Prior knowledge:
83% of the residues lie in helices and 0% in strands. It is built from four helices and no strands. The chain has helices spanning 2-30, 43-46, 49-64, 70-121.
Amino acid sequence: xxVLKEVREKESEIDNLIGPIEEMYALLLRYEVRVLxxxxxxxxxxxxxxxLLCWCLQCIILTVQVRxxxxxTTMVSDLRYGWKKLRKLATxxxxxxxxxQVxxxxxxCLLVDARACMLRMH
Length: 122
């Protein structure tokens, strides 16, 4: 029961943590390196100054971009799903414990009634 209480207490805190993590990784993925720059300037780019400048600018942009490991993106995408599964499991366990408590209470009442009945018979 203590674990269920802790899950409920931390629920909003964890929800508030997951959102910014997902947003941060979405932003990182948006600027992830998709094309690697070559060491040589392509001949068609060398033909004009503007072409050469454009190629240099693309290389600079590529060097400031970020690589996000696939494992990390998978973990982040599974984060909310795992949290939802945990909350669902906590709710199911809580419901099951409530049902068991009702059965236990009913059995206790039945035992008390049976004892009272036996005492009256003697």
